[in-house]
Design goal:
mainly alpha; Four Helix Bundle (Hemerythrin (Met), subunit A); two-stranded antiparallel sheet; 7 helices; 4 strands; 4% strand; globular
Length: 262
C-alpha cells in the first residue's frame, strides 16, 4: 500500500496483523494536503468565518504532523531492552505508551469515519478491548511497534485531512465520556502525541514543546494533563547510547550489496 499524501517519504518496514501489510509513509506534508477552504466574497460573513475555521484546522493538522514526526524520530531509536523499561506513567513500559498512541489514533479515526458516514461508530468496542489491544501492542518487537505507530498515525491523518466541513460538528464520544464535536479530536490528538512523547522518558521533555503548544488554550482535562507534565519530577532510565556504525574498511563486503564490495 502506498500513501500518496505528504512530501517527505519515509519507508516503514514490516507488517503486523491483517490491518497493516506494508506502510510506505510520507508522514509530514503541507497545509494544502486534503484541505478545502470555502471561497469568501465581500460581505459574505459565513465564508469569512469558514475561512477562519479552516485556517485553524489546517494549523492544528500541521502541528499534529510536526509533533508526530518528532515522536517517530524518538521511537526509532528505542531498542531492546529500553522498550521494556518503565515509562514515566506508573505501571506502563515505554512499549505500553507507544501501543496506546497507536490504538488512540485508531480510536479517533473510528470516530471521524463515523462522523463522515453519519453512523454512531465507537472509538473502542469496550474498555476491556482497549486495554487488551494495548497489552498486545506492548509485546511487539521494536520494528513491529514502530511500523504500527507510523501506519496508525498516517491512517488517522488521511481521514482527518479529507473530512468534509459538516462532519466536524457531528457529536462523538470516547467510551463513557460526554459527547463533544468531532473538531475537538484535533487538539486531543495533538495533546496525546506531545504529552505521551514526554512520558516515554527518552529525553523529550516539556522544554522541547513548541511555544504554540505550550501556550495553547486547552479545555479540561487536557489543560491539567499538560500542567502535570510541566510540574512532574518523575524520571526514567536513560536510553542506551545509540551504537554508531562500524567504520568502513576498503574492500570489505557490504551487507545486502549486489556488488558485494566497493
Amino acid at each position: 500500500m502506498v500513501w500518496t499524501e505528504g512530501t517527505r517519504p519515509t519507508m516503514v518496514p514490516c507488517a503486523i496483523s491483517s490491518r497493516i501489510i506494508f506502510a510506505t509513509c510520507s508522514y509530514g506534508g503541507t497545509a494544502e494536503s486534503g484541505s478545502i477552504t470555502r471561497a469568501s466574497f465581500p460581505g459574505d460573513r459565513a465564508g469569512w468565518q469558514d475561512e477562519l475555521v479552516d485556517s485553524a484546522q489546517r494549523e492544528l493538522n500541521d502541528q499534529i504532523d510536526q509533533a508526530t514526526q518528532r515522536l517517530l524520530g524518538t521511537a526509532r531509536i528505542i531498542t531492546e531492552p529500553d522498550l521494556r523499561a518503565p515509562s514515566l506513567l506508573p505501571g506502563w513500559t515505554r512499549a505500553h505508551v507507544l501501543a496506546h498512541l497507536c490504538r488512540s489514533a485508531d480510536a479517533m479515526r473510528n470516530l471521524l469515519v463515523g462522523a463522515r458516514s453519519g453512523q454512531d461508530r465507537p472509538a473502542y468496542s469496550s474498555a476491556e478491548a482497549r486495554q487488551a489491544e494495548i497489552e498486545y501492542g506492548a509485546g511487539l518487537r521494536p520494528d513491529e511497534l514502530m511500523a504500527d505507530l507510523a501506519a496508525s498515525a498516517m491512517a488517522w491523518r488521511t481521514v482527518a485531512r479529507q473530512l468534509p466541513d459538516e462532519a466536524w460538528q457531528v457529536p462523538v464520544r470516547v467510551l463513557d465520556s460526554d459527547p463533544f464535536p468531532a473538531a475537538e479530536l484535533l487538539p486531543r490528538r495533538l495533546v496525546e502525541v506531545e504529552l505521551h512523547h514526554c512520558d516515554l522518558g527518552a529525553s523529550y521533555t516539556p522544554a522541547d514543546w513548541p511555544a504554540g503548544f505550550a501556550a495553547m488554550k486547552l479545555a479540561e482535562p487536557m489543560r491539567s494533563q499538560r500542567q502535570d507534565r510541566l510540574s512532574s519530577t518523575r524520571t526514567a532510565q536513560p536510553l542506551a547510547p545509540v551504537r554508531p556504525p562500524a567504520p568502513y574498511r576498503p574492500g570489505q563486503r557490504l551487507p545486502g550489496s549486489i556488488l558485494g564490495r566497493r
